[in-house]
Amino acid sequence: MKKLLIALALVVLSGCTNSAVTAENAKPVPSDRILQNGTGSSLITVTRDSGWLVGGGCFVELTVNGKPYARMDTGETVSIKIPPGRYVLGISGDSQGKGLCGVNNGQPIKESSTDIKEHETQKFRIIGDFNSGLDIRPTAI
């Protein structure tokens, strides 16, 4: 019986782990959760890891220069057309969250800055772990 409980716990925990997802394998954020339309010759792609380890089950709000851009679920990606320049990408709790997902509305924003050139493409990941919670970082995948 003890071995069965340990095996069950391992199966449950393995379903909670986060996994990196490439932008090509992620689902696009549905248009009703994209809050702004970008314009420009450069592209920033943001992909959220899949899994339930940290923040799964709730959307995170992606911000560009402090303004809400999209509400993202796990395993989703969004591409932002943007003019060249310096930008600050951030993530925070979902401002439209309900129930338990509304609890994180006041969570601290985590941010990452970038300079993007004309016709350049940059990629970022929203990742999560128990120590630091959710974070947004540049990625090569």
Task: Give unreliable regions as ranges.
Answer: 7-16
Integer-rounded radius of gyration: 16 Å
- The coarse overall form would be globular
Adjacency order of strands in the biggest sheet:
1-5-2-8-9
SS element count, helices: 1
User: Any idea of the CATH topology?
Assistant: Immunoglobulin-like
Helix content: under 10%
- Encode the helix/strand succession as letters: HEEEEEEEEE
From the helix content, strand content and strand pairing, which structural class follows? mainly beta
Binned strand content = 35-45%
Distance between the termini: 42 Å
Query: What count of structural domains?
Result: 1
Q: What CATH first level would be assigned?
A: Mainly Beta
The average pLDDT score comes to 85
Largest sheet: 5 strands, mixed
The CATH H-level superfamily is Immunoglobulins
Number of DSSP E strands: 9
Q: What is the annotated CATH architecture?
A: Sandwich
Could you describe the 3D structure shown?
Helices cover 9% and strands 41% of the residues. The chain has 141 residues and is mainly beta. The protein is built from one helix and nine strands. It has one domain: Immunoglobulins (Immunoglobulin-like, Sandwich). The longest helix is centred in the first third of the chain and has 13 residues.
